[in-house]
Structures are given as C-alpha cells and as structure tokens.
TrEMBL record:
<protein>
    <recommendedName>
        <fullName>UPF0225 protein DES39_1046</fullName>
    </recommendedName>
</protein>
<dbReference type="InterPro" id="IPR032710">
    <property type="entry name" value="NTF2-like_dom_sf"/>
</dbReference>
<feature type="domain" description="YchJ-like middle NTF2-like">
    <location>
        <begin position="33"/>
        <end position="128"/>
    </location>
</feature>
<dbReference type="InterPro" id="IPR023006">
    <property type="entry name" value="YchJ-like"/>
</dbReference>
<dbReference type="InterPro" id="IPR048469">
    <property type="entry name" value="YchJ-like_M"/>
</dbReference>
<comment type="similarity">
    <text>Belongs to the UPF0225 family.</text>
</comment>
<dbReference type="Pfam" id="PF17775">
    <property type="entry name" value="YchJ_M-like"/>
</dbReference>
C-alpha cells in the first residue's frame, strides 16, 4: 500500500501542503486573495510546477525563459511582510522576502513588492519591484 506522505507546505504557512497550496495547484479552487496566490506561486517554484506559474502569470508580462528559472534554484523560505489592496479596483500588492540557493549552492534572497490583478474570479501575478 502506497500512502501519500503528509508534508509541510513550502510556502511556510505551517499548514500541510494538502491543506494549503495543493488545491490551488490542482485547480480545485482559485486563490481568493493576492497573498494566497503569492504563497501558492512560491510553492509552485519550490515544487517546479511551471504550468501553474504560467497560468497564474499575467500574459502581458510572462517571461519566455521561465522553465530555466524554475529549475535553477532551491527555494528555502518565504516571509510575507505585508499585503494590501490598491486604490485601483482589482489590484493588490504583496511585500515578501524569499530565500533560496542558486544553481551553484550559494544562499541568496529576493525582497520584492509584487503586483497582482484580479480578472473575473482569478488573481494573476503581473510584475514586481525589487527592494
């Protein structure tokens, strides 16, 4: 009998993956907020789920070399500093720090304010500003 092992979610929410980001990755439900989409996208990077990243990235800003970026890093930790809605309807921001090891094994971090847009019932990552 092959049982699925319960594991912590890579997004650092302290929840099990099956109860956190997995339902979004399996398209069982839509992320209700920009912050939850941010967490699910971080987990998708950590788990190398390129299809999810592509489908949750706004088509106007989707990079052509995404697959290479996904496979190069080992994602270690996500810290959400804050998230907020914009004055513009259906726009939100998430400030976070993500720690990872690059392809040479060197520890690095990325501190960013990401911008998200909601279209119909779906949030999409648009772009980010490094801090």
């Amino acid at each position: 009998m092959n049982k699925k092992t319960a594991t912590q979610c890579p997004c650092c929410s302290a929840k099990l993956y099956q109860d956190c980001c997995e339902p979004y990755h399996l398209w069982q439900k839509n992320a209700p907020t920009a912050e939850i989409l941010m967490r699910s996208r971080y987990s998708a990077y950590a788990l190398q789920k390129a299809d999810y990243l592509i489908k949750t990235w706004h088509p106007k800003t989707l990079p052509k070399q995404l697959a290479d970026e996904i496979s190069e890093a080992k994602w270690i930790e996500l810290v959400i500093h804050k998230s907020w809605d914009s004055d513009t309807p259906n726009e939100a921001f998430v400030q976070f720090t993500a720690r990872y090891r690059n392809s040479r094994g060197k520890a690095e971090k990325m501190h960013e304010i990401s911008r998200f847009i909601k279209h119909e019932s779906h949030w999409f990552y648009v772009d980010g500003q490094f801090i």
